[in-house]
Structures
1.
Amino acid sequence: MELRYLTPLTPGEQRAHGLPEPQPLAMADRVRFSELDPLGHVNNKAYLDWFEAVRVRHFETMCLPHYGDTPAPRLLLRNASIHYMREMHRDESYIATARATSFRSSSYIVEQQLWSGGTLRARLEAVMVLMCPDGAGKQPIPDALRRVLVARDGATEAS
Amino acid sequence: MELRYLTPLTPGEQRAHGLPEPQPLAMADRVRFSELDPLGHVNNKAYLDWFEAVRVRHFETMCLPHYGDTPAPRLLLRNASIHYMREMHRDESYIATARATSFRSSSYIVEQQLWSGGTLRARLEAVMVLMCPDGAGKQPIPDALRRVLVARDGATEAS
Amino acid sequence: MELRYLTPLTPGEQRAHGLPEPQPLAMADRVRFSELDPLGHVNNKAYLDWFEAVRVRHFETMCLPHYGDTPAPRLLLRNASIHYMREMHRDESYIATARATSFRSSSYIVEQQLWSGGTLRARLEAVMVLMCPDGAGKQPIPDALRRVLVARDGATEAS
Amino acid sequence: MELRYLTPLTPGEQRAHGLPEPQPLAMADRVRFSELDPLGHVNNKAYLDWFEAVRVRHFETMCLPHYGDTPAPRLLLRNASIHYMREMHRDESYIATARATSFRSSSYIVEQQLWSGGTLRARLEAVMVLMCPDGAGKQPIPDALRRVLVARDGATEAS
């Protein structure tokens, strides 16, 4: 099956390209020349751009529509833990994913995976905090979105 | 016609997506979140990554195969002139191109265009110098490649 | 004479560090690990960040104060021509400069130099366009600033 | 006390600029225009460049000299956990630090802090793995360096 770039992949496509468990959002892209480090591997920072692109899209296209009349929050990255498992090389294609794994009243945790050639290359866990649009304080996650995070992403509510 | 990303586009595809004159190499990609500047437009530097990716691919897949037994040169960017015509925005798709327009004994000029939504957004002219693999001096362009640059890219030999 | 980083250098300091002609603005910095390319040289893009930092500072601290009651314009990079002369390496210190060389009613040209170890490594010529704060049209350069560009930077008025 | 940029700061300088506990390595730098995100804050990725510069220098100037005849290893970032505490803004100066907190036979943990204006803005914990120069396997930390990590950095040996 040909890999479609820059487009959300169906669960079937994700499985066909080596992801054992399909994720709510998964998109393919390819290593760029500008992302190589002095040793010819992808530099550590490039992964963060890749994960960011999918994480932002996960929020904007899959979470924000459940805000109803609530104004869109400002999204803040509070913590990021990245685990580099196996190096990426020039011209390799990859699939980056995003899934909310848990949430509190005004924050949630996103788990992200990077797959290439059927092997997991890196994982990121990010804590996202939802601020009021004016940045003045935190904004609670609307109930409608909480239900979606549980039902669609399999997220749990952290006490 | 759907836009295929990260793959050389056929002349027909190039025309269908708004390029009046098909180029020897044209590839589509899309603006990333990490490429936006403080004003919400694509930052000036991102264009250079996009052009670089296509320029390197033009050399490696369309020029290097004509080197025969000659060792692959080290490619050096000597000059770059970029003209920004119309701003790019978040999530816009674009097509970046490359074409050799002229060459001398050990250098060539690449003309690159950036198209989006049927309008030309930026142009780059780059002077590339071909160094010996050890960086010690310049390496002449093999005759076989010179013929290809003329026949395929429409390049002229500068005296 | 010790090199002071991230601070405008006096004409005497500029000369002591190898600049034959002192420029209106010159600031020193040092190559970062993250700026090295796959071959161990500074990547072409890093120079643009360096030049940008000095060019923005030149406008904001040396041009904007002459705006009086006129609202600050939005600065647009229209053209950039960069000439790479000699490669930069890891941990090298450099001095980047900025000088307005000419101007029209609502644009000006900045000439920028990059010096390291007494040799010129790169030159950039940038065409800057001054837009109204709302981006709706061009904004003329105030007379007070025009006089300063001539007297201080030695800029000429292009007809 | 004036802040010296791009130079290891003495314990006295570190205290004078707001670090309650001086670190083995601390260097000052300043936010660049190119590091601002669409909202006008420093983008999350820039912090990683800053930390990387100090982390690489910590290894190369403070660890590598204790390698004696052992060939220099290839340094691999295995894990990075970053905690963003308070946003950085345009033109702010900052001090980034590095200290080895623990080590195993062929890896060590670096704790890094980012200070600005007397407040802690971010913290990073990185797990570094030392590979043989050919990348074929792990390389043990020499005894001489182990002693230095304990005595100078206050690192503990993890069992």
Note: Chain A has a mean pLDDT of 95.
2.
Amino acid sequence: MAVTATSVADTCAAAKRAARVLARASTATKDAALGATARLLEEREAEILDANAADLADERAAGLSEALRDRLALDAGRVAAMAAGVRAVAALEDPVGEELERKTLASGLDLQKVRVPLGVIAVVYEARPNVTVDCAALTIKSGNAIVLRGSSYAERSNAALAAVVREALAEAGLPQDAVALLAGGGREGLAELATQEGLVDLLIPRGGEGLKAALKDVATVPVMYAAAGNCHVYVHAEADPEMARRIALNAKTQRPGVCNAAETLLVDAAIAERFLPAALGDLRGAGVELVGDERVRALAGGAEVGAAEAEDWDSEFLALKMAVAVVDSIEGAVEHVNRHGTGHSEAIVTTSEEAAEEFAAGVDAAAVYVNASTRFTDGFEYGMGAEIGNSTQKLHARGPIGMRELTTFKYVARGNGQIRE
Amino acid sequence: MAVTATSVADTCAAAKRAARVLARASTATKDAALGATARLLEEREAEILDANAADLADERAAGLSEALRDRLALDAGRVAAMAAGVRAVAALEDPVGEELERKTLASGLDLQKVRVPLGVIAVVYEARPNVTVDCAALTIKSGNAIVLRGSSYAERSNAALAAVVREALAEAGLPQDAVALLAGGGREGLAELATQEGLVDLLIPRGGEGLKAALKDVATVPVMYAAAGNCHVYVHAEADPEMARRIALNAKTQRPGVCNAAETLLVDAAIAERFLPAALGDLRGAGVELVGDERVRALAGGAEVGAAEAEDWDSEFLALKMAVAVVDSIEGAVEHVNRHGTGHSEAIVTTSEEAAEEFAAGVDAAAVYVNASTRFTDGFEYGMGAEIGNSTQKLHARGPIGMRELTTFKYVARGNGQIRE
């Protein structure tokens, strides 16, 4: 398949028509399309890897960092993982048609609140070609159409993968326009996509702050901004120090470049002297650059800790760097998190149930962890099969955006001639 | 109480602090505040009516239409109705703390998804002072704070009512800043309120298209646009003609100035000859100006029907005017509704269950009625006690915005040291 040559508006209009068919497709039909997708991914492995090799050899990929090249690269294992992911989505419950509520109103109307697909989902993403398949699988199963806009340097890989999904849709008797891939088109193309009011029901940007800022300026369609994560680990006075060390280390270092990695470590004054030297030693040992407030620096033991600047408390480092502060109480920790956090993922380590509940209730975030790493905020970990993004907004959906988050509802009221008096 | 003299930002910041207390207030405490509000409304009736009389006598109210003066005017009955409304909200179930989901993840984490308040709700409204009390009651019970911005010509009435609610909050031991009333401040004040990112969690405009357009230009906080309603009644081939006449007449004329009133009547070709003369006669008899397509005009019998212009199909008349078209099939009706409708409320009249289900599934709207008037889309009719607005957006909430729609959720994951491998 060539990257869609028609205009953005035409592509979105075709997706809207397809969405009306997908919305009413049976679970069996949608699962058949997903099954065919998984099978075709395996059958077309060679073609897909050829397309990917061409992308990697292209001059557009020459300037990429090693990390980005790795994210772009496919191999047999990654293709197999995509197929397995599609089968996992097929195995999940179909959210469409779920009756959310039913009651008889005073007027005698039988009021049903039923889950329906949103319609057309647009996803703007970078680098990883597997996003093409993951997102298409989630939208197909949830009865939506999808308009994908990947990176130009992944163009051939994305096209090969979208072609597989479109062939699978046709095999299942579903409209191919339910999965469309747009050519990049630069900032202008992005603006065109973000202003398709009435055609695009939700736009999900998966990318950095530059992409989000560009969208905030122009978007008129609903946008769900994927989260920036300034996440905290708070070590309470009654924490198990060994557990706290493991959690802080994991939250910071297991994958520092992602949004649910921790950026700040808050340590209760009552445990600071006992906890800090070893914990900071762990972090330094893992190559983490540390900055701290005065109390932290005084209690650092042998660990090297720079002086924290005011902006460090508001920074999503996305790197092996961590800010560390001592707080005087759980109230102080909650206040620090609510002032500096981005509402993503926050953790407390404590053996006190009371402290855990106070932190969980007081912190305003999508996810709060008690005695666990912040790294678990993820659609796959949450049993959603996959995620199309992650939200720190409060409206509609918070946290991982899975199939259910790609739906809305409709009221259907059945009567026998009711009129309003 | 004087209208809040502090800045918009200060008022919103104080509301945010109060919201954190409200979020954790018990149901009993919130109900005590609502009970006190109802009691104080009754006790302060004379004061409230004096303030309202001063508003009505003010030169700012001199230019108002008779309809707007009527909406502004209070009397003993309207004050009593407000008190009854507050007691009705108190009697509803508290949405906060509801466990929406709970499961044990593969990692062993105990994941709970729990309903929490949104935080600070801002409401911009016109004329009717009872909105002050209705909205405050809904936000208090749902654990939110509210920042109200009413019309300048209702300033004294709104201030008297807000003072009652604030006194009731204090009586229940809750922070008064949970209910704040802003002075108008014109377009500049509106823009200031609409850009309080991090303080205002949701802004709900209750007003005309001018207000919405003004907000779309400036708002950076989440806005839920109250609906424009271009609603349809479709009379299916197998409709009971008498029922269809009653429903069409009610949907158009029972209260033509509201968003759930019908603007267009669609009549299936198979029933048009039998149905149209009498139905159009009813509407003309009720003073409705009719415009129609050629087939309608040919079958109108004695009723006067003008020629419909293209824009009539997209118009929310909000008046005793209706556009009428003949459609060839249920598919044609669904297509017309999806092309011209605003996703608010749509009705089909039919004795065929199959046709009803096809229409309900095919129409993309917040509410679909089978054999009932579109006029039922309303928080009170839906058993939500009241509504703070009505949404035709698909994200977060569709249809009446009640207490539950003023909440979001939070994931709380409890572990015993889980880290991500």
Note: The first strand of chain B starts at residue 99 and ends at 104.
